[in-house]
Amino acid sequence: MELPESRLINNNITNMDYIVNVDDDQSWSLPLYKALIQGNWEIVERIIKQEREAITARLTAFAETPLLVAVKGGQGLPFIKKLVDFMPPEALALTDYFGNTGLHAVAVLGNVQAAKLFVRKKRRIAKYLEY
């Protein structure tokens, strides 16, 4: 069964506007992904402090950011809050290939407290989202 064509095309040009350079040393990306899934804040913090681009990096084949990986990995509110504190406001609006933001993910998972955190922490997120 083929997916409908619209599911295969991402019309969000802003979030597709990045170039992956295979020559870049991104040896930190797999350890970051694993630490996010495992909830190991010490490793996450060390990596995002050393690698500035890590906080907005696309870590999966579906272009998931560290925030999306942590939320989908079931990390709790304290972990998510620490991660959000490192993020610039516009990073909260970054989407995966399907157009989902961290706010979408917490809403789908029913994590009301995390959704409130996103909105309270960065009220400016609304200007980055298109409904």
Please, could you describe this protein's structure?
- The chain has helices at 5-8, 13-16, 29-38, 41-50, 66-72, 77-86, 102-108, 112-121.
- With 131 residues, it is mainly α.
- It has one domain: Serine Threonine Protein Phosphatase 5, Tetratricopeptide repeat (Alpha Horseshoe).
- α6 packs parallel to α8 (112-121).
- It is globular.
- The chain starts with a helix and ends in a 10-residue tail after the last helix.
Descriptive tags:
Serine Threonine Protein Phosphatase 5, Tetratricopeptide repeat, 131 residues, disordered N terminus, 0% strand, mainly alpha
Q: In summary, what is this structure?
A:
The protein has 131 residues and is mainly α.
Shape: globular
CATH superfamily descriptor = Ankyrin repeat-containing domain
Mean pLDDT: 78
CATH class: Mainly Alpha
Major beta sheet, specifics? none
Distance between the termini: 29 Å
Tell me the count of domains.
1
**Spans with pLDDT under 50 lasting ≥5 residues?**
1-23
Order of helices and strands: HHHHHHHH
Number of helices: 8
Topology-level CATH name: Serine Threonine Protein Phosphatase 5, Tetratricopeptide repeat
* Helix vs. strand class: mainly alpha
Q: Assign a percent range to the helix content.
A: 40-55%
